[in-house]
Amino acid sequence: MGKILNSKISVLLVCTLLISTLQLFAVIQIPQAKAADSVNKLVNGGFESGNSAWELDGTVINATYAHTGSNSLRLGSGETGVYQVVNEPEGSKLRVSGWGKADSGETVLLGVNCLDNDGRSIEGGKFEIGFSNADFKQKEIVFTTVPGTKKIRVYGYKLENVRGYAYLDDITLTAEQTQQPEPTTQPIKPNVNVIENAGFEENSQNWSFDGAMIDMGNKRSGTNAAKIGPGEGGAYYKEITVSDNVYTITIAGWGKVSKEGEKGFFGVDLKNDKGRIGKYQIEFTNVDGFEYKSLKFNIVPGTTKMTIYLYKMPEVGGFAYFDDLSLIADKEVADPPSTLREKVITNSVPSGYSCTNSEVPDEYFMTKNNKDYYYRTYKCVLPVKPMPSSALGSYKAVDALVSNDNHIQLYKRSYKLLTVGMWVWNFDVVLDPAAREQLLQFSVAKGINRLYLNTGSYTPGSDKSALSEQAALYRKFNKMAHQLGIAVEALDGQSDWVRESNHSIPLGRISEVIAFNASASDPQEKFDGVHHDNEPYTLADWETNKGVLAKNYLQLVEASMSLLQGKGLTFAVDIPFWYDETPINVTYHGETKPFNRHITDIVDYIGVMDYRDFANGVDGIISHGFGEVEYAAKVGKEAVIGVETINFDDATNPGKITFWQEGETYMNEQVALVDNYFSNSFANYDYKAGPGYKGHAIHHYLSYKELKK
Description:
This protein has 3 domains: 29-175, Galactose-binding domain-like (Jelly Rolls, Sandwich), CATH 2.60.120.260; 186-340, Galactose-binding domain-like (Jelly Rolls, Sandwich); 418-499 and 527-539 and 561-581 and 594-704, Alpha-Beta Barrel (TIM Barrel). The protein has an 8-stranded parallel β-barrel with strand order 30-31-32-33-34-37-38-39, surrounded by 6 helices. It is an alpha/beta fold. The protein has 11 helices and 39 strands. Strand 38, helix 10 and strand 39 form a beta-alpha-beta unit. The chain is globular.
């Protein structure tokens, strides 16, 4: 969100943001379509006619490698792509197929975007498959165009993480009328692994994937594993029918997750004709590699069928991986009961707490005295009287998980006034009394309670800051804002300040703010904090010099924080949401972890450039900001979620990064969803991020005030 918004920086920012939106779908085995369905709707799908019918962006036609014919498409070595648009209405069932290969470490994506009449992407209408194999391999996806679709964009796209090449060839788009075979039922077999294709070596055979996919890069053994994420998703094995015999069941397998706080579940639902009568599952939370877990239980009498499932926690933002699963039924059960045993819930609701609970027992615990004992998950919070609403913002309940023993989750509730911030880059609001009055009135009307006010370079050709040249007017502005209950932070920043040779400039600017506050005769004239927006990823050498620049940036942030210690000023910096999603891992002070976590460890709070125009979904504001808010809570810090209102909507800056097209009413609705989600943790299962949420902020004043209602 920097004040430097030239086209080159915008390209770098948005191209990198695109990396985090990938939603790789399962590679499924599909029966051969009928001849009438196999007509290719794409023109020049094998690139034999050069780039005819295709729009190329950094790609070239290649005659060295080809699956068939003489040509293929080469993508590389930076971030590159190609696309072709085809008219296709909503409700069309289609298949995209292609052959691809990539250099070591590279991935090339083949995908489809559903578009509306104006050529804009429709939420939920993106489907992709990835190639990271060294030799040409065919993959395909079947999809149905989402409501509102008028045309589709078939595209190829290569990630920029490795400076290699990738190739696509023989791309087809055909009508698909043949249904994917649904998994059938399977009778239980004693003393053998019931799960056929337990290691996913046959891709999705015998499984129904719902948000899951095949992964070839993260597997424990063989060539494949199952992968779910980053949103809520799962997979179901074909239904197992159960006879009247009583069995002991053992489920076991290997699993891992990609980030702390994520959970992957492998479990079994026991059912009769009326529904579920038992549930048993194992949980994977290890981030360091595949771990083995198992669970043994007696089948519930009356069970006639079993459903085996994989599932991942929603909205945590990571991935869960599963491999080499097993379910083994043992007929040699000692003393099988002749009647239905009594179900006993071993835990209970604590006195004085308001609790919610699951509909059925969540986990079998033990059998004793011919009784089956279960845990039931309870979420409990001690009710307290809410704080009153405020004209300058709203108090929100923040529930911190303080205990999670024996499936009873106890939350401690507090209330905080959330930040409603706004970036102000233009100087006339300080220099011109009319502009200053207009800004402050606008802020009060919109409930803004914190302004990030530009104090940086003002006079062209001069290294002096506006603060040093117009100190008296800044004092007047701060006093007027404080009298209205609005906090003010000194905003500054420039990308090349990150370089070690330039650190003296931002440190000097911070010293100016410290001196400004020290000389104030009235406390209301002072700034409340320093807010820097330095974006090292916009520098030309970021990709080739990322490690050095990242460490230089951390050194600068640490020096800035040290300079501000004991000065009564907070220090915040702005970061993009994708620092932990690309990811950028940095070793600093002997500790290796994502770039954003090092930054959060140092500063008082972070501003997250979470530029999407919808709150929910895997590519939404909540999903992208979750990791930052959750980690801030873990280390006792906070995060402000930033949204955009600038008039962007082009190939480099897609409309989804700004609320400009949708307007203020819609933006307020989406931001309210974000506020409610992050502040009301009791409504979200096993949720720990609430205390790390400071509020939201809007970028920026000039475009915000022009936003349609």
